[in-house]
């Protein structure tokens, strides 16, 4: 009886988590920068990249955090509702576990 109860709890937790994930609303999914531009989304990016990003994507709506908080400032701007997506390089952020935790808490993912 004990093992069957354990299996019941595990399966129930899995189904509840799956249902919560599948019914979640408000998340934005983008695969390319062209989709970001077409949807008119605001992009938070590091101010050091301002010149290059504006040159490569002149029609994009960029928000550059100038408070000197580096990548954490982008997360602050995202939390404040100033942007819909973040432009962050994997190599700049993967080694920072605190930053990765902040991304995970907000269901933010990397795309190519």
Describe the structure in your own words:
The chain is mainly alpha-helical and 112 residues long. It has 6 helices and 3 strands; from the N terminus they run ααβαβαβαα. It has helices spanning 2-22, 33-38, 50-56, 70-79, 90-93, 97-105; strands spanning 42-45, 61-64, 85-87. Strands 2-1-3 form a 3-stranded parallel beta sheet, with helices on both faces. α3 links the parallel β1 (42-45) and β2. It is elongated and about 65 Å long. The N and C termini lie far apart (48 Å). The model has no long low-confidence stretch (mean pLDDT 80).
| Largest sheet entry | 3 strands, parallel
Oligomer: single chain
Shape: elongated
Straight-line distance between termini = 48 Å
Which band does the percent of strand residues land in?
A: 5-15%
What topology does this entry show?
Blueprint (H helix, E strand, L loop, with lengths): L1 H21 L10 H6 L3 E4 L4 H7 L4 E4 L5 H10 L5 E3 L2 H4 L3 H9 L7
Parallel strand pairs: 1-2, 1-3
Summary tags:
51% helix, 6 helices, elongated, 112 residues, mainly alpha
Brief synopsis:
The protein is mainly alpha-helical and 112 residues long. The chain contains six helices and three strands.
